[in-house]
Every structure is written in structure tokens, then in C-alpha cells.
Amino acid sequence: MSEKKVLIAYYSYSGNTKTIAEKIRHITGGQLFEIKTIKEYPRNYTDIVNLAKQEKEQDIKPELANKIDISGYDTIFLGTPVWWYTFATPVKTFLSENDFSGKTIIPFCTHGGGGAYSTYSDMEKLCPDAVIKTGFTSYENSAKESEIEQWINSVK
To answer: Which fold has domain 6-155?
Structure first.
């Protein structure tokens, strides 16, 4: 993938998605970009679960603390934890604020036991003019670098 400019954009609440993003960075040499919100999420599990549900139900897109110009990137690995059966709302903001037309999005997600659910198909709905490749799903941050590399090679 070295012939194309690669971005690895991710949102990580507990650090699991960040760990996978860093493994992807090690394999691809791409640039890391952590999606951050202006307002921090609560650290109490029950509070974050309830807030994530509310944000999803009310289609809230939390304001981001940082931005990146994606126009110079051909391939964007996009990572998220699974919140209420889809991607985290900060990722929704990131997808909504950028033009992914003609870009290749390679999604990845981390979960606590439930799988990816509709994470990848929901990304396709928000980015109809992007090519979205087969996603990589990891239970927490348990994926081995060799598994990630095998997936990357399969979606090139």
C-alpha cells in the first residue's frame, strides 16, 4: 500500500481501537489520526452506555476537537468501537464532516463481545461515493498483528 497515501483515522474510548490502529500503522506506514471530541465522555461504564444510546437515538454528532484534511489520502483505515450495534458517534461526526468521494475506506472495529453488527453497512450508507472494503473486527484488542496483516493483504 506504500504507493498510495494512507491515513489511519480512529476513535478509541478505552484504548482497544487505538491498539489495533497502531498495529495497522506498523504494517502500512500510514499516518495515525485520533478522532477526539471536545467534550470528554464519562468514564463510568453505565454512564457511557446510557449516553451512547441517547446519542444514537437522537442522531447526535458530538463536536470534534480536531480535524484533518483527508483530500491528500487515497486509502483511509477507519476504526471505531461498536456502540449500540454500530460505530461510535464521534466517527459519525467524522464521516459527516468529510468528503469521502472516490476514497477507499477500510473499516475496523473493536467490541466487547457482540461483534460488528451493522457498523460496516452503516458506514456504507453514510459514504455512498466511497469504496468500502471488508472490515476487520476484533474482540477488544486481542487481534494479533499477523491476523491484521493477513486482512490488509486481502483488501488491497
So the answer is: Rossmann fold (3.40.50)
